[in-house]
Amino acid sequence: MSVDAATVIADGRAVLGIELGSTRIKACLIGPDAAVLATGSHEWENRFVDRRWTYGLDEVWSGLQAAYTDLVSDASGRHDAALASVSAIGVSAMMHGYLAFDADGELLVPFRTWRNTSTGPAAEALTTSFGVNIPLRWSIAHLYQAVLDGEEHVPAIASVTTLAGYVHEKLTGRRVLGVGDASGMFPIDPSTRDYDADLLGRFDALAADTALPGPVRSLLPDVLVAGESAGGLTEAGARLLDPSGALRPGAVAAPPEGDAGTGMVATRAVVPRTGNVSAGTSIFAMVVLERPLAGLHHELDVVTTPAGDPVAMVHCNNGASELAAWVGLFRRFADAAGRPVDADTAFDVLLREALEGDADAGGLLAYNHLAGEPIAGLSEGRPLLVRSPDSPFTLANVIRAQLYGVYGTLALGMRVLAEEDVALDRMYAHGGMFRTAGVAQRFLAAALDAPVAVAGTASEGGAWGMAVLAAFAAHRAAAHTSAAPAAGAAASGADLDDYLLESVFASTTFDTADPEPADVAGFAAWLDRYRAGLAVESAAVDAL
């Protein structure tokens, strides 16, 4: 037992971060030095209902309560400490999507997640009008598609938000969003770190004479940057999170953020010339920009860091889920053979086997598309493993192809970013697949042809990053109290980076993998074949 950790928890000085990911809801408790004190989690899964990917709001709360209960149990088991209060709290969740409510706060249609690709006409119209790329998954595309389709609920819309914004409002009573999450709803003006006023006007002009009530700005949450006050945990919010009644209200609340922003914080990639890759159910790269992009590219969308600095995002709907399915297949074989192995062992064995594969995976192609993939031009997904008759069909090549497949669409988008001459000093990666040292990281370095660093906190992911943002909010609140700065003073990316360097990453070590020439050449050859083979994937969508 750690006496210091127990005291921090008992005194209510710990900080709580929560993230609602695509397959897991995670809770992470950290101490003043950002070290993890306890964690909790709950598995959940989206459902495909009426041809839309969704989660029920009852699942949101049962899952949050289960993850929090698991965290309380972990704190007790590790430190013999009862968790009754925290100094700060932050909520993060998958970005984008569509949650529309009426004036009484009732959900009008089931939650439409980022994974849905039914917003093509709206995204195209908005991209043309705005002159910036509006992807299918953005909230404003979902809203405008509902308008174009004349959906019955449109006249009753009083507010639209993201999953993180919804949970935060229930916990604090504040209808706000962190700027990073807000940037996946509607374009942000980097000079104001708020919704772009000119584009708001253009949207209203497009939506004139439709059933949409009022100007679009009145429907969107207010925007805050990292470090600004986003309210506090209320009594009602505490009961929602902890129905046992043990958790006390009063914690400082950080602006709710999207999973992309928390990934940037978790890897200290928040200032220009830095970037990160987050790998989970989806996979995306975030690169902080020094200057605006020269052109409009459908492979790239511009969002922001939690401090409001512009970021080029390469977002792919499909990440490591298909790889996990293959690992599950081999785990079942081990069970049937009477030699069961746990998931971590199976991943470790199979990923290390991939190192023995051919640099181009022996000509094997793996398409990980469980859902549609706009960058690849696919409205739906059909996972495929394709090979020519003479391809060396070995376990090493199969798993190497699956790992390459996780990065395939991402690499297509990153090639576009390279053509924009965007410079990078460092690229970080985080997510569970990087727990096996030196494999997924090495192949990502080959895919990007750039060094890739992984920190010891990489597998903690967004819940830890959100806890750090909550600690930053508490830090700024304390500084404001003592220094009495001007009201509304906002953090900059440099402020956030200084805090991360001094208070979070000062003693953190990073393991960096440099791209190996043979891997780079092998992946490039594989990607050329992958690009050509997208015709096979498209045919599968049409035929199956």
TrEMBL record:
Superkingdom in the source lineage: Bacteria
InterPro entries: ATPase_NBD, FGGY_C, FGGY_Carb_Kinase, FGGY_N
Enzyme class of the recorded protein, top EC level: transferase
Gene3D superfamilies from the UniProt entry: 3.30.420.40
Molecular function, one GO term: ribulokinase activity
Occurrences of domain Carbohydrate kinase FGGY N-terminal (ranges): 15-237
EC number(s) from the headed UniProt entry: 2.7.1.16
Sorted UniProt keywords: Carbohydrate metabolism, Kinase, Transferase, Xylose metabolism
Gene Ontology terms: biological process: D-xylose metabolic process
A family per Pfam: FGGY_N
Residue intervals of the Carbohydrate kinase FGGY C-terminal domain: 276-474
Family per similarity comment: Belongs to the FGGY kinase family.
The name this protein goes by in its record: Ribulokinase
Organism listed in the record: Microbacterium lemovicicum
